[in-house]
Write a structure and sequence with these properties.
Layout (H helix, E strand, L loop, with lengths): L12 E5 L9 H8 E3 L2 H4 L19 E4 L5 E3 H8 L23 E8 L12 E8 L2 E2 L5 E2 L2 E8 L2 H15 L4 E5 L6 E5 L21 H10 L29 H16 L4 H4 L8 H25 L9
Antiparallel strand pairs: 1-5, 2-3, 3-4, 5-6, 6-9, 7-8, 10-11
Helix pairs in contact: 1-3, 4-5
């Protein structure tokens, strides 16, 4: 198997819900991860805070910009807003974690086997996943039937990347929902993200070979807020001997560090569609004044996988 420190899940494991359900981000955590301070030089062009309709004059320390969309608010106003909903008041761009309607009780297991999937010549084997949901009640109190489902991924670096994303989606209740099956009419947990449920048969029969499957499912998960996490960027001091900071001008090391993160993403086969969902390089004034704050934002994205393993139990399949 390929050695890739970025993909940290064990080759064989099991997670249980509700014990491993992720918790929603706190308003302060969303604010910290999705905003940067607004410098005094940029305040005049930002108009008023769209929450309280007050201006930013004399309150530079309380002005922040949402990195996802660029809108500016008072930090205190935005913190109160995030206590009710984690989206931009102006454009409704969502921040923080999304959660779905998957049953809260269930099990996900996976293991690696030597048998390859059809058409996956570069794979060293197959990642076999198995989900179990007992019968229960949906959010409206309607009873749903139990379900047992198996799925398959190629045992490659990219396949294990998708396994990581599947685990995160399962813990956020996004991998399945509850509804009537189109094929058999059962009211039970339905697959909400495309999962290969057959080893053979091609794309039309939910099997392999399907050369575009991994790229498609990564994009599909990204649209639900489950994204590939990039390595650390801009976390080292950007000061160097003889290099003075000039207002309104990006320092070379800032730009080089940001470009290195994109190059690393390419090495990890992160598709262009997913790169488009990642935060863009901040404006020149913001990055030159707040490079460390921006770096901390991206660093948190790379540290979360280790946090998510706290509730993962390694267990024979």
């Amino acid at each position: 198997m390929q050695d890739d420190n970025f993909l940290r899940l064990p080759e064989e494991g099991c997670i249980f819900l509700p014990a491993s359900l992720e918790l929603a981000d706190s308003p302060k955590a969303v604010l910290r991860s999705h905003t940067v301070p607004l410098l005094p030089e940029l305040i005049l062009g930002c108009g008023d805070c769209r929450i309280c309709f007050g201006d930013f004059t004399g309150e530079a320390g309380d002005a922040v910009r949402i990195v996802d969309c660029g809108h500016a608010y008072h930090e205190s106003c935005l913190l109160r807003w995030f206590a009710e909903r984690t989206s931009c008041p102006s454009c409704c761009t969502h921040m923080g974690k999304l959660f779905g309607a998957q049953p809260s009780e269930g099990t996900m297991r996976w293991r690696c086997t030597a048998e390859p999937l059809e058409g996956e010549l570069q794979a060293s084997g197959t990642i076999v996943m198995h989900w179990e949901f007992p019968a229960g009640l949906d959010r409206q109190g309607r009873r749903f039937a139990p379900r047992s489902q198996e799925g398959y991924l190629p045992d490659t670096g990219r396949g294990r990347e998708v396994l990581n994303l599947f685990v995160t989606a399962f813990r956020r209740k996004l991998l399945f929902d509850v509804g009537a099956s189109i094929s058999n009419g059962k009211y039970w947990p339905r697959i909400a993200v495309h999962i290969k449920t057959s080893r053979v048969g091609g794309a039309q029969r939910y099997g392999y070979p399907d050369s575009e499957y991994l790229a498609r499912v990564v994009q599909e998960l990204a649209e639900r807020g489950v994204r590939v996490r990039l390595p650390q960027v801009l976390t080292e001091s950007t000061e160097s001997p003889g290099c003075s900071e000039q207002s309104g001008s990006l320092r070379n090391q800032d730009v080089k560090s940001w470009r290195r993160s994109r190059a690393k993403a390419a090495e990890l086969s992160v598709p262009d569609q997913v790169l488009g969902t990642l935060p863009a390089l901040p404006s020149e004034l913001e990055l030159s004044g707040h490079a460390r704050r921006w770096g901390s934002h991206l660093q948190k994205q790379t540290e979360r996988p280790s946090d998510e393993q706290k509730n993962i139990t390694i267990n024979p399949f």
